[in-house]
Amino acid sequence: MKVAVAVHGRFHAFELAAQLFRRGLLAGLATTYPEFAARRFLPPGVPLATAPVLEVVRRLHGRLPVLPAPDVWIARHFARFAARTLPAGSDLAVGWSGASLELIPAAQARGLKVAVERGSAHIAHQAELHLRLRETFGAIVPAVPPAMIARECAEYAAADAIAVPTRFAAETFTRRGIDPARLIVNPYGVDLDRFQAVAPRRGGEVLRIVFVGRVGPPKGVPWLLRAFARLGPKTELHLIGPIEPGMDRLFAGEPMARVVVRGPLPGAQLAEEYAAADLFCLPSLHEGLALVILQAMAAGLPVVTTPESGAGDVFTDGVEGRLVPAQDVDRLAEALAALAADAELRRAMGEAARGRVAHGFTWDDYGARAVTAYRALLAGPT
After folding, report:
1. Strands 92-96 vs 259-263: parallel, antiparallel or unpaired
2. Which CATH class is domain 207-358?
3. Of 50, 158, 218, 236, which residue is least crowded by CB atoms under 10 Å?
4. Domain boundaries defined on the chain
């Protein structure tokens, strides 16, 4: 079996490609990353095809957001690039959702099976959620472009399989008529060497809660701010991640005492942030499986999150952390307060969290599950 991987950016595709390469199963990796940047994250010798101009366009828009969003344009051009550079001898193509539509028929015409990776819930589920949030929060919540919804739905219909990271994500597909037999559910992994538990934890006078993700309503930030405001004065909340445009207006109307808005930080710095924290919280309204949850668990932090984050597939409520309903300020505040008040509970949950990801949620575990699923896909129905 030889697998070709195609991703517009990085996501977890580089970890997948590395796992396949180490097993002798990677036909090649196509990406928008320039070669010099891609190789920093990959084992030596991985065969690469790169389209760096597309990455430049994406990053320029990030710096000049007044320009029209190029997402659909990039997705279309990258899918065509991936189709042109599909390695000879491939048996399976794995492409990322939104940027695989033109790749799928080209690969299938050559006799390949195609799996589309969707790192979140069904795009129609995501779009409907964002539409509801926009009724409350306005343009702070980005709308999902109709052209991207159409692309992804066409990919779901055309692909031989759709890979998602959790049962929560899978259910958003089956509720929309996708045959469960076409779904691959494979939770992500974490690098245990990079994210390590700190013993003992910081133990300072002020308890630090850390949030990592896009700072906006879809990640549950307004409800987190309201819940955090109910905690005692010897607590602080650090918001780490890109800040959605217009959040300054939302911050002006929310309780912000003891809240530190950090903004985006280099990925290499996240391990230090987890080490400096006592508790991790991500009250998302939808995810596939947030990688930051696995990272925080590997760092020995108890986690407070929602079922919509996908965390129900990787930990048990009350053992490694707490699962609370999304948008429920009362339940979120109760969970945070209970952990803030009990250092021994935080220690026990943090140790359990580290142990949980160490046994089933490393990148090697993820790679092994992916290979098993791909072999089954190629073998066909039994």
Report:
1. unpaired
2. alpha beta
3. 158
4. 3-189+362-379, 207-358
For the CA atoms of the chain, what is the radius of gyration?
Answer: 21
Question: Cα 37 from chain centroid?
Answer: 20
Q: Distance between CA atoms of 371 and 187, rounded to whole angstroms?
A: 13
User: The pTM is what?
Assistant: 0.94
pLDDT value for 247: 95
Integer Cα distance of 90 and 113 in angstroms: 9
Token pair in block for residue 10: 């990085």
| Token pair for 294 | 């696995």
Q: Where are the alpha helices (DSSP H) in the chain?
A: 13-22, 35-38, 52-63, 71-84, 103-109, 123-137, 146-158, 167-174, 221-228, 247-252, 270-275, 291-298, 329-340, 343-358, 363-379
Closest CA to 296 of 318, 323, 277: 277
pLDDT of residue 382: 59
Does the structure show a pLDDT above 70 at 305? yes
Q: Is pLDDT of 156 > 90?
A: yes
* Residues present in the chain in total: 382
CATH for 3-189+362-379 (3.40.50.2000, 3.40.30.10, 3.40.50.460, 2.40.50.100) = 3.40.50.2000
